[in-house]
Amino acid sequence: MTMLWTPSPNFGERTLPITMLILHYTGMQSGAAAIEWLANPASKVSAHYVVDENGQVVHMVREEQRAQHAGVSFWRGITDCNSASIGIEIVNPGHEFGYRAFPEAQMDSVTRLVAELVRTYHIEPRNVVGHSDVAPARKEDPGELFDWGRLAKLGFAVPRPTEKLVDPGWTDAAFLLALERYGYSVADGRAAVVAFQRRFRPENIDGVIDGECRAILWSLLLAYEGGGAT
C-alpha cells in the first residue's frame, strides 16, 4: 500500500503491547486541515494513520510509538488505550460539519490497512473498535454510517448478530453489567448504551435499553464470553 509520510511530533513511548485498533473520523472540514492539526505540536494530538476520502493513506506516527488519539478511554479493563492501540483517523466532516457516508475508495484503503495491521499484530476482532466504543461519554466516531459489516465479513471486526436472537429479559442494571463485561465503560450508562447501539444497531440510536439491544448483547456474550449477566 502506497503511503505518504507526514510526521507528527505528538507521540510518546508505549507501556503496553499492541492489542487494539481504534477507528476515528477526523471531524474537521477537510482532510488537509485534519492532517495539519495532527502535525501541529500545539494540538497535542496525533494518529498513526489518516485515510483521506480519495483513499490516500498518510502515515504520521510510527507503529512502535504511542500516538495521542484516544484520550480518556477504556476498553476491556485497559485504561491507557493509546498505549495498547494503533489509531486510524478516517477523513469525514463528522456530525458537527455534515456527517456523510464514507466513499468506496476510502473504505477500500481502510479495509486494506486494517487487514495489514490485524495480521501483523494478531489483533482479535473484538478489539477492533470505534472511538465511541472506548470513550462513549465523549465521542461519536466513526459513527453510524461506518461500514463495520465490511470489516466483519473479512473477519477483522465483530459482526452484528442477526440470527436466533433471544431476549434474556435482563433488568437495565443487568444489561449494563453485561455491557461492561463485553468491554464498555458504563460510568455513564446512557452514553454506553448509545455507543453500543451506534456500533451494533445504528438504525435506531435512542439510548433506550430494549429487547433487541438485550438480545444482541446476549448473543455477543455467548459468542465471545460464553454467557452473560443474570
TrEMBL record:
Pfam families recorded: Amidase_2 (PF01510)
Molecular functions per Gene Ontology: N-acetylmuramoyl-L-alanine amidase activity
BP terms from Gene Ontology: cell wall organization; peptidoglycan catabolic process; peptidoglycan turnover
Enzyme Commission designation: 3.5.1.28
Tagged with keyword Cell membrane: no
Protein name: N-acetylmuramoyl-L-alanine amidase
Record's catalysed reaction(s): Hydrolyzes the link between N-acetylmuramoyl residues and L-amino acid residues in certain cell-wall glycopeptides
Plastid keyword on record: no
Family per record: Belongs to the N-acetylmuramoyl-L-alanine amidase 2 family.
Annotated Gene Ontology cellular component terms: outer membrane
Keywords from the named record: Cell wall biogenesis/degradation, Hydrolase
EC category name: hydrolase
Domain N-acetylmuramoyl-L-alanine amidase: 6-143
